[in-house]
């Protein structure tokens, strides 16, 4: 089972376009500049990760067909909301960077900071609301498995991304 998980994770992290989809350039982008990953490639990667996530979640939680029919649309709905809020956060941070460069007033900075705080609050609310809805569908043990799975999957994805970035940089010269 662990070998299957590792193989799947490696396929995601390294197999997609030779690992270059997950890899980011070694150079740091300028403030307000996105890393150069095309939207199509990002969407393709997201879809592949979501499919593997769904398969692994189904296995780990031992979801019935009835549970899958309820859980996946629910989780998808809340993920879309959270994705939009995270995008809004990135835009607000870029706005703060521009405001700092342009010597914005304290009041202007405070308004943008408040907007970021409100957005973070909305993100937490969406996460909680989504979990409460999930709790109406799944028994407690499956809820616990879901929490553990989410954390493990997140850690594994971060590890794979880090590994792909390291490979993209190549061997370091002394």
Features:
single chain, 174 residues, mainly alpha, 5 helices, 0% strand, disordered N terminus
What features would you describe in this structure?
With about 170 residues, the protein is an all-alpha fold. Among the domains are: about 65-140; about 140-174. The chain contains 5 helices and no strands. It has helices at about 1-15, 40-60, 65-100, 105-135, 140-170. Mean pLDDT is about 80; it is low at about 5-30.
The topology string of helices and strands comes to HHHHH
Estimated helix fraction: over 70%
Strand content: under 5%
Measured distance between first and last alpha carbons:
40 Å
Biggest sheet, open or closed, and with what strands and sense? none
**Overall spatial form:** globular
Number of strands: 0
Helix segment tally: 5
Task: List low-confidence stretches.
Answer: 3-28
Overall radius of gyration: 19 Å
Query: Structural class, from secondary structure content?
Result: mainly alpha
Mean pLDDT: 81
List the helices and strands and how they pair.
Blueprint: H1 2-15, H2 39-61, H3 65-101, H4 106-137, H5 140-169
Summarize this, please?
The chain is mainly alpha-helical and 174 residues long. Helix content is 78%, strand content 0%.
């Amino acid at each position: 089972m662990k070998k299957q998980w590792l193989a799947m994770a490696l396929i995601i992290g390294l197999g997609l376009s030779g690992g270059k989809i997950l890899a980011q350039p070694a150079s740091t982008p300028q403030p307000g500049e996105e890393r150069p990953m095309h939207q199509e490639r990002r969407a393709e990667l997201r879809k592949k990760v979501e499919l593997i996530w769904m398969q692994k979640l189904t296995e780990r939680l031992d979801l019935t067909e009835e549970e899958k029919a309820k859980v996946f649309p629910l989780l998808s709905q809340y993920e879309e909301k959270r994705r939009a809020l995270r995008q809004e956060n990135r835009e607000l941070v870029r706005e703060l960077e521009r405001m700092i460069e342009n010597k914005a007033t304290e009041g202007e900075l405070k308004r943008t900071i408040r907007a970021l705080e409100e957005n973070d609050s909305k993100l937490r609310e969406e996460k909680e609301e989504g979990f409460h809805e999930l709790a109406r569908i799944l028994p407690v043990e499956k809820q616990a498995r879901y929490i553990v799975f989410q954390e493990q999957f997140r850690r594994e994805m971060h590890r794979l991304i880090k590994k792909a970035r390291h490979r993209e940089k190549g061997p370091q010269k002394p």
